Amino acid sequence: MTTRLPRRVNSGLAKRGGSESWSERYARWTARWRWLIVGAWALGLVALLVAPPIASGGNELASIIPPDSPAIQSELHSVEKFGFPLSSRTAIIQRDPDGLSVYTQAESVLDALALDQRTNLQWPLLGAIPITNATRLGASAGETNTAVLTYLFMNPVSSFSDQSRAARRYIDEYLNRPEDHVIGVTGSVPARAAQAELVRQTLPRLEQLTVLAILLLVGMTFRSLVAPLVALGAAGIAFLATTRVSSVLGGALGLATPTELEPLLVALLLGVVTDYTIFYVTALQVRLRDDGDPHMAVRGAVAAYTPIVVAAGLTVAAGTAALLAATSPFYRGFGPAMALAVVAGLAVSVTLVPALMAILGRKLLWPGLAISGREWVGSRVVAGLRTRIAALHLMEHLTRRKVAAAVAAACLALLAVVSIPIARMDLGVGFTSSLPEDNPVARSAAAASAAFAPGITSTTTVLLEGSHVTDHLAELSDLQKKVEGEPGVAGVVGPAQNFTQRAYNVVLSKDGSAARMLVVLDHDPLDAVAIDDFDRLSSRLPRLAADSGLGWTQISIGGDTALAVGLVSSTGTDLIRIATAGIVVNLFLLVLFLRAVVAPLYLLMSSILALTASLGLTVWVFMDLKGGEGLTFYVPFAVAVLLVSLGSDYNIFGVGNVWEHARVLPLREAITTAMPESARAITAAGLTLAVSFGMLATIPLSPFRELAFAMTVGILIDAFIVRTLLMPSLLVLVGPMSGWPGPNLRRARQDGRAAEALDVPATAHSSNSTPRPN
Fold first, then answer.
1. What stretches of 420-506 show up as alpha helix (H) in DSSP?
2. pLDDT digit string (tens) for 315-373?
């Protein structure tokens, strides 16, 4: 039988030296001013709804790639030398598998030349270059005389959607004949525009499904129709506040939230606010069951759990804000948005939710707890049975050192084994390959791949600079042939082609100081295999140039694959920086909250193991089972930041409850007493959060399926394995040393021994342990 604690612990209204704690004063304040708090949030909601939305702008490419990227600098040099880039991020594909007539090919070429001669272009389009497959690019390239690919060059400061519309205007103006056989527009810019459009189209459905899931899960957890409405109302206000304030801060700081990750913000915000509401309502439910006074139960729940919720929220916010330590603007733009979402959710959770609890009282649990004070038929039996099973059949066994050692060893071994596939993880960008197969951009990319080669939609430009380099045509041609023979290269357009004479200023500059080659890869240029092939090619280029007699030239590489290599490389570097910053921040806050060093170390280690297990399973499913080339570059990054932060969140909730009980009980008894309530709340919160992130899979883009799987699996591992089994086992094994150098656990152990000697409850001998009168 577990020891029944005095009301001082049950209510959470702990006193120090006879004075109220700040959390008790806060509980009284929220109860007293409950109507004022609700009214203030209602006015704020009205203001948020009537305020006009703030449009976000800026260079969308810069939201992913830093301007000082070597690939960007190479493209700028190329434009300086030739007047226009050779690589394009938007292309129009015309294809007829039965053969495209010579006349149609010629007309398409003339259309592009006519555009280049115009001087009054008012849209983002600046120029065009057509390429036909009249001759194969290389031995492994695709068809002949079936297609024309027209590269379009756009103003880089224009939005992706504007560039895509400009491409369609080009089709309407120049390629509107039936014999043109236009398939559509493709390239990295149209692909990102298509991704953004899919996100916009499916985001309302994601929100609706998540709301329904929260209603169902929270309602079933508390057998209540009211508690889910409170959780969703708080989450809705926090969401509106986040979207409005993030737009203002983003404009002020020059940071833009990447469109690809906006649904992740929705899942995070809805999940976190619902979690904190579950924590509060669980505490209220327990206290209503222990003493029927609803006013004292509300105050006790708010006082006991507000410090835990505040500490947990600040930990998650600080962990996500650590993204500011990244060098990539992609992650730097996402970090403040996530941190702001958590802070907004925390503000609503610790003000509006306690105020609504004070107003509703036991009505919050209707019909699970009848207004008259009697519980719903059978609920006391079910709750009592569940508590006894959890406390007696699980926690009491785990408090035995041999059982705890076996459970901890099994959990650690399992997490380590499923983490092994991380060693095989490859990263890609995959803007086009992430789209559904029936998407117009994806269909156009498939047609271009069949007609030319997979890399034709995003080519790579090799730029060679040196005095009178164009006088070395034989050497340049030899280098082109060597590059063409490298693994992963489908073909090269350059000085070796007959049509690229000096007068055209296409691959040989007029001043003779630069030459360039257009390299087409034989895989999707933004996927992991192409990135690996390009990385190998770029490392071999200096040696190849030297063998061709061009070792004295300065070589640089531009294009989407070069940018992807830099992005993936910076992701690895940033991951180390952010992981270090996040671990330090989470460790500091855990130490501050628990006033201990030992427990935060192994608790944080368990969160990291849950993360590696989640990523290992994600690699196994999406790369090994499904045969994918790699994960999207930002998926491991986002998962790492969120899972470690949310793991610390659950650490604070679970261990914080044990720590509170351990002030007056020996540690093992505190675990047996506190963990059933904590485990039940963490299980409900974990399920809700897992479902919230799992709904990301409803967005028909592969990165969101990867994110949904990794986050769902990681949260479930954390809730059901790490917090339910591993954490109490480690607490038992390490014992009171977990609280070192703090005195709480050591004092509780001494009080427990004294109590056993006197054969009285341990709490009777704890300092300041006089229970409140009933």
1. 440-451, 473-484
2. 888 888 877 777 776 777 677 777 888 888 889 999 999 999 999 988 888 887 644 44
Structure tokens at 248: 């203002």
Phi, psi of 452 (to 5 degrees): -120, -85
Greatest distance between any 2 Cα atoms in the chain? 104
Kindly indicate the confidence band of residue 67, based on its pLDDT and cuts at 50, 70 and 90.
Answer: low
Calpha distance 727→275 (Å, rounded): 19
Task: Quickly tell me which residue has 């030297």 as its tokens.
Answer: 546
Query: Rounded distance, CA 28 to CA 290, Å?
Result: 20
Cβ-contact 418, 616 below 8 angstroms: yes
168 CB-contact burial (10 Å; exposed 0-12 / middle 13-18 / buried 19+): middle
For β-strands 554-559 and 460-465, DSSP reports them as antiparallel
CB environment 351-377: b (16+ within 10 A), e (fewer): bbbbbbbbebbbebbbebbeeeeebbe
The Cα–Cα gap between 366 and 447 comes to 59
* Short-list 649, 640, 573, 582, CA closest to 610: 640
Determine how β-strand 427-428 pairs with β-strand 631-632: parallel
- Can you say whether residue 212 is alpha, beta or left, with left for phi > 0 and alpha for psi between -120 and 50 degrees? alpha
- Going by C-alpha positions, the residue among 719, 716, 736 that lies closest to residue 727 is 719
User: Nearest 5°: phi and psi at 373?
Assistant: 105, -15
pLDDT in the model for residue 463:
92
- Rounded distance between C-alpha atoms, residue 551 and residue 530, angstroms: 25
237: number of CA atoms within 13 Å, CB side? 26
Cα(743)–Cα(741) distance, integer angstroms: 7
| DSSP category for residue 181 | -
- pTM of the predicted model, to two decimals? 0.82
Could you report the per-residue pLDDT of 455-508, keeping only the tens digit for each? 888 888 999 999 989 888 889 999 999 998 899 898 888 888 754 444 456 788
Distance CA 596, CA 605 (A): 15
